[in-house]
C-alpha cells in the first residue's frame, strides 16, 4: 500500500466536506446519514495509518570492540645494536724459516689443536746446517781442551820461573777465547736445531683452521701467511654503542669495579641473521679505550659460548640487552595506538561504555607493547580491535581482547 501523508489541512478538509454533505442531505433518510458517518470514520482510520507509517527507523546497536587494560609495572628497557662476530683469538700462521712446502697436514675448515703440525717445509738444508754447527762445536771444544792442558802444564813452570810469565798469560788468554768460541758454537747448534724444528709449522691456538694460502711446492718465508686459525669457543661479538648510552650507563655506578660487576651481570641476547635467537646468552667483555670522533660511538665486545662452532667469524647479528629498568611504566598494545599527522592517539572506553579519543605520548617499544608516558592511567580500557568503527562520544560494547580470541 502506498504511504499517505498526514497534513492537518487534509484532515480538516475531509471533515468539513463530510459535515457539509450530511447537512445538505437532511431530507434523506437516517440510513443515508448513517452511511455518511461510517465513511467518515473509515477515512479517518486510513489517514491515521498513513501518519503512523512515517515514523523514524530505530537506532543501530552499539559497535562491538575489543579492549585491553592499561597495565602498570616495572619494565626493563632493551636496546639493540648491529654486531659483527670475530674469533676470540685469531692467529695468523707464518713460518719462521724460508723454504719449500713439502706437506700440508690439516684439512681446511677443520678443528685443529694447539701445537698441531699444519705444514712441513723441506728440512734438508736445515739438517745440514745443524750438522755443520755441531762439527764446529766439536772443533771448538777440542781447542778448548788443548788450551786448558797448556795452562795447567805451564802454570807451575811459570811459578818456578822456568818459563816466562808472559807465555802463561798468552795461554790463559787463548783459553778464554776458546771458551767463548765454544759458547758461540753451542748457540749455533741451538739455533740450527730450532730452524730444523721450525720446518714443521704448527698452530699457536686451538680452533678452526682456514683455507691454505700456499700450496705444496711454493717457496715461503717468515713474511708469508700460510693460513689463519680462529678460536671460536667462546666467540666475540663486536658492536658500537652511542656515547650517550655509554655515559648514561656509567653514571649509575660510582666505581670502576661496580661498572665491571654490572657488565658481568647483564645478559646479552644474540639475534642471528635468520631472525632466530641464539640459545646461549653472553656477557660484556670490554669497552674500547676511546670514542670514535667521527661517529660518536664506542666499540663494545661481547663474549658468547659457542660449543658446537655454530657461530663463525665475520657473521652478522644483533645484540640485545636491557641496560636499565623504567619503574611503574604504563603499557598498552602497539595496535591500540594510532598515528595521525605526527601525533599518537588511542580510543579509551569509559565507565559509561562511551569512547573518548585521547592524544598520548609514547616512549620505548617493548616487544608488542608500547610504553605510554602521558595521556593514560593504569586500569583504563583502550580499544585494540575495531578502531575503524568508533568515533568520539559514541557508545560501544566492550569485549576483553583475550575473551574475544578465546571465543573464536
Q: State the total count of DSSP E strands.
A: 19
Number of domains: 4
Rg: 50 Å
Secondary-structure element order, as H and E?
Answer: HHEEEEEHHEEEEHHEEEEEEEEEEH
Uncertain spans, ≥5 residues at pLDDT below 50? 1-29, 403-408
Any idea of the CATH topology of the largest domain?
OB fold (Dihydrolipoamide Acetyltransferase, E2P)
Described by strand count, sense and barrel closure, the largest sheet is:
15 strands, mixed
Can you walk me through this structure?
With 408 residues, this protein is an alpha+beta fold. It has four domains: 45 residues; 92 residues, conserved putative lor/sdh protein from methanococcus maripaludis s2 fold; 103 residues, Elongation Factor Tu (Ef-tu), domain 3, CATH 2.40.30; 137 residues, RNA polymerase II/Efflux pump adaptor protein, barrel-sandwich hybrid domain (OB fold (Dihydrolipoamide Acetyltransferase, E2P), Beta Barrel), CATH 2.40.50.100. It has seven helices and 19 strands. It has a 15-stranded mixed sheet that branches. Strands 6-5-3-8 form a four-stranded antiparallel sheet, with no helix packed on it. Strand 14 and strand 15 form a beta hairpin. Helix 1 packs antiparallel against helix 2 and helix 3 runs antiparallel to helix 4. The chain is elongated, with a radius of gyration of 50 Å.
Amino acid at each position: 500500500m502506498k504511504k499517505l501523508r498526514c497534513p492537518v489541512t487534509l484532515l480538516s478538509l475531509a471533515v468539513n466536506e463530510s459535515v457539509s454533505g450530511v447537512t445538505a442531505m437532511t431530507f434523506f433518510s437516517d440510513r443515508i446519514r448513517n452511511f455518511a458517518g461510517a465513511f467518515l470514520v473509515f477515512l479517518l482510520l486510513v489517514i491515521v495509518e498513513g501518519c503512523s507509517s512515517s515514523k523514524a527507523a530505530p537506532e543501530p546497536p552499539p559497535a562491538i570492540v575489543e579492549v585491553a587494560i592499561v597495565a602498570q609495572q616495572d619494565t626493563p628497557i632493551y636496546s639493540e645494536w648491529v654486531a659483527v662476530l670475530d674469533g676470540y683469538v685469531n692467529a695468523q700462521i707464518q713460518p719462521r724459516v724460508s723454504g719449500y712446502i713439502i706437506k700440508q697436514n690439516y684439512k681446511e675448515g677443520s678443528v685443529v689443536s694447539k701445537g698441531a703440525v699444519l705444514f712441513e717445509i723441506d728440512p734438508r738444508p736445515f739438517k745440514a746446517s745443524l750438522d755443520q754447527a755441531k762439527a764446529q762445536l766439536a772443533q771448538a771444544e777440542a781447542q778448548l781442551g788443548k788450551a786448558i792442558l797448556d795452562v795447567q802444564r805451564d802454570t807451575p813452570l811459570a811459578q818456578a820461573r822456568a818459563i816466562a810469565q808472559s807465555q802463561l798469560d798468552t795461554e790463559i788468554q787463548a783459553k778464554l777465547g776458546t771458551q767463548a768460541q765454544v759458547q758461540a758454537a753451542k748457540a749455533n747448534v741451538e739455533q740450527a736445531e730450532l730452524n730444523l724444528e721450525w720446518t714443521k709449522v704448527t698452530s699457536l691456538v686451538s680452533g678452526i683452521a682456514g683455507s691454505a694460502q700456499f700450496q705444496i711446492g711454493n717457496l715461503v718465508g717468515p713474511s708469508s701467511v700460510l693460513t689463519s686459525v680462529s678460536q671460536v669457543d667462546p666467540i666475540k661479538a663486536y658492536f658500537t654503542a652511542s656515547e650517550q648510552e655509554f655515559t648514561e650507563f656509567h653514571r649509575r655506578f660510582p666505581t670502576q669495579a661496580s661498572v665491571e660487576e654490572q657488565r658481568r651481570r647483564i645478559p646479552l641476547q644474540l639475534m642471528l641473521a635468520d631472525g632466530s635467537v641464539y640459545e646461549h646468552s653472553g656477557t660484556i667483555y670490554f669497552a674500547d679505550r676511546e670514542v670514535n670522533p667521527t661517529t660518536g660511538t664506542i666499540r663494545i665486545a661481547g663474549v658468547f659460548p659457542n660449543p658446537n662452532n655454530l657461530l663463525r667469524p665475520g657473521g652478522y647479528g644483533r645484540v640485545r640487552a636491557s641496560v636499565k629498568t623504567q619503574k611503574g611504566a604504563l603499557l598498552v598494545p602497539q595496535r591500540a595506538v594510532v598515528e595521525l599527522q605526527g601525533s599518537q592517539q588511542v580510543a579509551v572506553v569509559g565507565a559509561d561504555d562511551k569512547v573518548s579519543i585521547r592524544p598520548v605520548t609514547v616512549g620505548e617499544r617493548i616487544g608488542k607493547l608500547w610504553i605510554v608516558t602521558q595521556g593514560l592511567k593504569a586500569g583504563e580500557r583502550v580499544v585494540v580491535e575495531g578502531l575503524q568503527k568508533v568515533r568520539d562520544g559514541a557508545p560501544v560494547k566492550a569485549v576483553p581482547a583475550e575473551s574475544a580470541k578465546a571465543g573464536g
